[in-house]
Design goal:
Helix 12 packs parallel to helix 14. The protein is built from 14 helices and 18 strands. Helix content is 36%, strand content 23%. The chain is α/β, with parallel strands linked by helices. Helix 9 links the parallel strand 10 and strand 11. Strands 6-9-10-11-12-13 form a 6-stranded parallel β-sheet. A 5-stranded parallel β-sheet has the order 2-1-3-4-5, with helices on both faces. It has a 5-stranded mixed beta barrel with strand order 14-15-16-18-17.
């Protein structure tokens, strides 16, 4: 008898991807066959894992739901379920507007879907332990995976809807995380991206203090862990011991993703970031001093309510000074329910926002081109992700999957996906490097 097929469609960030992988593991443990992000889903069941962070992401999620609702109406699929951030936040409205959906689940109760779909005469494998590593189907290339160490955020920045969706910060127990890493190593994973809405706050709720440095050190001690990379730190009350771990442990990448948003003190105050321009610059200086060669990834925002020409000029000057190795930027969009939506007027015109965004990104392209060009002639350790046409595509320790520059290596000899090679950099573009195997 053929197993019923479930296709999981994941929208949004890598944290959502981890939830999808856990749900797939639960489905498979209960006798289902799962596919992920299929180009042409033909399963009896489709589950859309939605994003609800910003307007564009919400629109994309709603359009995807409507697409599969039409597929259900036409008989191309049998059942449609929705989970994730969008349904966590807008459940009542969505239930009324899209009645074709068979069931709505939020950010935390998606395991309950198993109970609805497992035949009544069978006892489902428990769905209340979705963090167990045996309930996880890794969808990324075999050699790397994401590890979600906590959920939620206590920071309450004025513009951000995440606390409205995910609630307060909840750390996973350290032993549970390290056990999951051990299990993934046994499955062939060598590179681990640690992710959270606020990674540096890890442990405060469970242990009464920040314990991210201890967690990273514990993961680094697991045999078979070749690379650990850190995503989504926060500048206020930064745990300095984390820099020591990064400096001393060779398998902890000299890389950190820390969203700074802005540098002007008036804007930072209105954003409720609880950090100043001086403190931000001191943080960057200390990071570069204590971890030589560190690559910093950040995200900046333009057009926040009240941002003046002088505020924006400070942001440009700061970007020139900081020379971020990796930087993304976006224009402010008002999110209902947030402090800024309720207390500030969205007073920066859209064309001004776009002009500022374009100017900031042009500056960053120039900085990135200079930084990458300086690597020509260096020999760097590279992990191979895939082959595309005449090139193998890999990454250095300074590059996270899907968001950072890649290294293109001519496929003149056979390389193994998921293996490390010494690569001499021969050329550079704004966001990519070219190289050749040295041995």
């Amino acid at each position: 008898m053929n197993k019923p097929t479930v296709d999981i469609i994941t929208m949004g960030c890598s944290k959502n991807l981890v939830d999808s992988e856990r749900l797939m593991g639960l489905f498979e443990a209960n006798g289902f066959h799962c596919t992920h992000d299929s180009d042409n889903p033909k399963g009896q069941i489709v589950v859309v894992n939605t994003c609800g962070f910003i307007a564009d992401a919400k629109e994309e999620s709603i359009n995807t739901i409507l697409e599969f609702a039409q597929a259900k109406t036409e008989g191309r699929i049998q059942k449609l379920y929705v989970m994730g951030c969008l349904s966590e936040r807008y459940l009542a409205d969505l239930e009324q507007e899209i009645p074709e959906v068979d069931g709505w689940y939020g950010k935390f109760n998606y395991g309950e879907l198993i109970k609805e779909l497992v035949p009544k005469e069978k006892a489902p494998i428990p769905a209340d332990t979705p963090t167990s590593p045996i309930f996880r189907h890794i969808t990324t290339p075999r050699h790397y995976a994401y590890v979600k160490i906590s959920e939620g955020c206590d920071r309450h920045c004025a513009y951000c809807a995440i606390p409205l969706i995910t609630g307060r910060h909840q750390s996973r127990p350290m032993e549970e995380i390290i056990d999951e890493v051990r299990w993934m190593v046994s499955q062939g994973v060598r590179e681990f991206q640690l992710i959270a809405q606020e990674l540096t706050y890890y442990g405060v709720d469970l242990y009464g203090k920040q314990r991210i440095a201890e967690l990273v050190e514990g993961i680094a001690s697991v045999e078979g862990v070749d690379w650990i990379r850190l995503h989504y730190a926060y500048p206020t009350h930064f745990p300095w011991d984390l820099l020591r771990v990064m400096r001393e442990r060779p398998n902890v990448c000299k890389y950190i993703d820390i969203a700074l948003q802005h540098i002007s003190d008036p804007v930072l105050e209105r954003m409720q970031r609880h950090v100043t321009k001086q403190e931000t610059m001191a943080l960057i200086e200390r990071m570069r001093r204590e971890v030589p060669g560190i690559h910093l990834r950040t995200t900046l925002m333009v057009g926040f309510p009240g941002e003046t020409d002088d505020d924006f000029q400070q942001l440009l000057d700061f970007t020139r000074w900081a020379r971020f190795e990796r930087m993304g930027a976006f224009a402010y969009s008002e999110e209902e329910g947030t402090y800024s939506a309720e207390h500030y007027e969205d007073d920066v015109p859209e064309d001004v926002k776009q002009h500022r965004l374009d100017k900031l990104m042009r500056l960053q392209q120039h900085i990135s081109a200079e930084i990458e060009a300086a690597k020509i002639g260096q020999t760097m350790k590279v992990i191979i992700d895939r082959r595309e046409g005449d090139y193998y595509v890999g990454r250095t320790e300074f590059c996270s999957p899907e968001v950072d520059p890649e290294v293109l290596i001519p496929a003149t000899k056979k390389l193994s996906i998921g293996e490390f090679y010494d690569v001499r950099i021969t050329d550079a573009e704004e966001f990519d490097l070219y190289g050749e195997i040295t041995a």
